């Protein structure tokens, strides 16, 4: 699929990254009075943090090779272009907006992305492990299955992060011989897998620290092309398989008591809470 | 009849406790849907693990084959699909842990099923079951409906009690389906070795936050006195002070021990999402206004470097 052979090492020509517009995870999220959705007044938006890591990784692979193209895809309304411009200011080359009204579930997102992949024929797709709004952590795996590709979820690095000028901006994903080697962060340790290209990789926090957009980067990003597509053009029915019926606030945990010293604390834990 | 397939996780040596919690969730679904629960154990040399699972009152299918030695999603999803079809499963359930999170979405795609992740409880009426799951880092609980005939779920082990041993179910071999070309190859697993109990299974967890300034010795000293697991916040992990394996929170692990001791932790939403299900929470923080005190059962204002060793001493002198 469009890979160029350079002796034993093959080069990745095109990397596709997903960028989702999400509510800034550092602000307080509240349910609206009828439980139909969250309160959106005054909410700030950001690119999904895991997606920024995906874009950073794609850029590092491209920079290491000295060639290649990084394409960012967003599924959402017109306002999602803001988050794509952010990715393009980091260095991504162009954007594709799949324009939808309202929200789509993980499955519809994966089926839309699969169609974009069929058109674009990337060698590698890098997505965030989950979006921090819906927290489903499914889209990458669904996409890999719909494409019939291999996958490596929760991509990380052996050591904890990062600096030394952010580890001299080396990618964690190692591309060689038509494969990508991925260190996966899983329960109990780290697993290393080789996945044949083309492949889908999803990012864990410990893969990299995304760069900031530079001022020249921001200026350049304004001129980078954004193509618009619709689900109808892609031939995808976005009727959700998972419907949100109602939202509610989680049960509040009541504040307990303050204790003056360790002796009182131990006494309470032994005799009142009976956990020691 | 709506049968429930429960996909077990194991360590190759033994069944993970999370599988028993997920089994309990599966039994709750079956009780409402009127179906039966069937377990699935996959791997190589996993016969004894299948027997252990079956001793918890569940019939088990076991796919034991060198070709599925490692839990690669491409291969294992095909085995789960086959098992689900064989028993006419209307529900496929697994613990919300990294292995099942990797595999189950592919199963959902293969079964044309909708999937809900990290389910913490059930709603709806009778056989019409809805699923409660956290969104926005647990700031919100969503009640979702899955509209497809087959429904795939991962369930949070901390939200369901473990299934108890019962009359042993039958264990039957499941023949592997045609696996086709598998494009993923296992290279190695680097296990994190620790003498302490596993974070998600410990009775007591002692966690440290930014207040440790990277010195975890008071946290570890107290944890070892109590036979507890050590946890950390995202800030600690991001600073590179502790490995991510120990992270408690939205982007880390969800824990619900009997006692959670938070040392130098402010109580960011992100962290609280991963530990607020704990039975008793103790918070020690220098800042009397730290949000952690709003959810703690017992709060103590002070310097963790003084209080943790004092607490350790008080406990050892008993």
Helix content of chain B: 25-40%
- For this structure, the quaternary state is heterodimer
Q: What's the overall geometry of chain B? A: globular
> How many beta-strand runs of chain B?
16
Number of continuous helical runs of chain A: 8
Strand content of chain A: 25-35%
Greatest interface (CB-CB under 8 A), with counts per chain = A-B, 81 and 87 residues
Helix-strand makeup class of chain B: alpha/beta
CATH superfamily of the largest domain in chain B: HUPs
What's the CATH superfamily of chain A, by name? HUPs
Give descriptors for this structure.
heterodimer, A: 276 residues, alpha/beta, Rossmann fold, 16 strands, 29% strand, B: 318 residues, five-stranded parallel sheet, 26% helix
Summarize the structure in words.
- The complex is a heterodimer of chains A (276) and B (318).
- By secondary structure, chain A is of the alpha/beta class.
- Chain A has a single domain, classed as Rossmann fold, CATH 3.40.50.620.
- Chain A is 28% helix and 29% strand.
- In chain A, helix 2 (81-90) links the parallel strand 6 and strand 7 (94-99).
- The longest helix of chain A is centred in the first third of the chain and has 17 residues, at 49-65.
- Chain A is globular and about 65 Å long.
- Chain B has two domains: 2-173, 3-Layer(aba) Sandwich (Rossmann fold); 199-316, TPP-binding domain (Rossmann fold, 3-Layer(aba) Sandwich), CATH 3.40.50.1220.
- In chain B, helix 5 (217-226) links the parallel strand 12 and strand 13.
- Chain B is globular.
- Chain B is of the alpha/beta class.
- The chains are: A alpha/beta (276), B alpha/beta (318).
- Chains A and B meet through helix 3, helix 4, strand 9, strand 11 and strand 12 of A and helix 3, helix 4, strand 5, strand 7 and strand 8 of B.
- Strand 16 (257-258) of chain A pairs parallel with strand 16 (298-301) of chain B, so a sheet runs across the interface.
């Amino acid at each position: 699929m469009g890979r160029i052979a350079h002796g034993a090492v093959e080069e990745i020509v095109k990397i596709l990254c997903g960028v989702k517009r999400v509510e800034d995870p550092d602000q307080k999220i509240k349910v609206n009075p009828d439980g139909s959705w969250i309160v959106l007044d005054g909410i700030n938006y950001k690119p999904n943090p895991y997606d920024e890591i995906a874009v950073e990784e794609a850029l590092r692979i491209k920079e290491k090779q000295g060639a290649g193209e990084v394409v960012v895809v967003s599924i959402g309304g017109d306002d999602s272009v803001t988050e794509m411009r952010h990715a393009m200011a980091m260095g991504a080359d162009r954007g594709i907006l799949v324009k939808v009204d309202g929200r789509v579930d993980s499955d519809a997102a994966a089926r839309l992305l699969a169609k974009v992949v069929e058109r674009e024929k990337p060698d590698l797709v890098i997505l965030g492990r989950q979006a921090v709004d819906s927290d489903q952590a499914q889209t990458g795996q669904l996409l890999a299955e719909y494409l019939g590709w291999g996958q490596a979820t929760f991509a990380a690095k052996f050591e904890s992060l990062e600096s030394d000028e952010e580890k001299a901006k080396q990618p964690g994903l190692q591309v060689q011989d038509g494969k990508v080697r991925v260190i996966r962060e899983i329960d109990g340790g780290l697993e290393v897998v080789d996945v044949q290209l083309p492949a889908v990789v999803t990012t864990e926090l410990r893969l990299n620290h995304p760069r900031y957009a530079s001022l020249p980067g921001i200026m350049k990003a304004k001129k980078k092309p954004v193509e618009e597509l619709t689900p109808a053009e892609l031939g995808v029915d976005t009727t959700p398989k998972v419907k949100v019926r109602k939202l509610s606030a989680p049960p509040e945990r009541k504040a307990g008591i303050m204790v003056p010293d360790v002796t009182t604390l131990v006494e309470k834990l032994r005799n009142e809470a009976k956990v020691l | 009849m709506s049968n429930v397939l429960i996909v077990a996780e194991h360590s190759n040596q033994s069944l993970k406790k999370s599988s028993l919690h997920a089994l309990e969730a599966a039994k709750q679904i079956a009780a409402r849907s009127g179906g039966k629960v069937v377990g699935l154990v996959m791997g190589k040399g996993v016969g004894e693990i299948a027997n252990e699972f079956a001793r918890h009152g569940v019939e088990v299918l076991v796919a034991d084959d060198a070709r599925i030695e490692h839990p690669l999603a491409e291969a294992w999803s095909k085995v789960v699909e086959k098992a689900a079809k064989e028993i006419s499963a209307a529900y496929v359930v697994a613990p919300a842990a990294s292995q099942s999170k990797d595999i189950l979405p592919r199963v959902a795609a293969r079964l044309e099923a909708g999937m809900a992740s990290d389910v913490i409880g059930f709603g709806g009426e009778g056989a019409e079951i809805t699923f409660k799951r956290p969104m926005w880092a647990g700031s919100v609980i969503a009640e979702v409906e899955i509209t497809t005939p087959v429904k795939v779920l991962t369930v949070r082990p901390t939200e369901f009690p473990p299934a108890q041993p019962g009359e042993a179910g039958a264990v039957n071999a499941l023949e592997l389906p045609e696996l086709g070309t598998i494009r993923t190859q296992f290279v190695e697993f680097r296990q994190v070795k620790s003498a302490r109990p596993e974070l998600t299974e410990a009775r007591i967890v002692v966690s440290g936050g930014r207040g440790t300034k990277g010195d975890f010795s008071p946290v570890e000293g107290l944890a070892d006195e109590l036979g507890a697991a050590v946890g950390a916040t995202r800030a600690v992990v991001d600073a590179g002070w502790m490995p991510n394996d120990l992270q408690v929170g939205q982007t880390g692990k969800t824990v619900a021990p009997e006692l959670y001791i938070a040392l130098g932790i402010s109580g960011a939403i992100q962290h609280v999402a991963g530990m607020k299900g704990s039975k008793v929470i103790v918070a020690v923080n220098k800042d009397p206004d730290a949000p952690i005190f709003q959810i703690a059962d017992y709060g103590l204002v002070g310097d963790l470097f003084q209080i943790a060793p004092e607490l350790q001493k008080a406990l050892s002198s008993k």
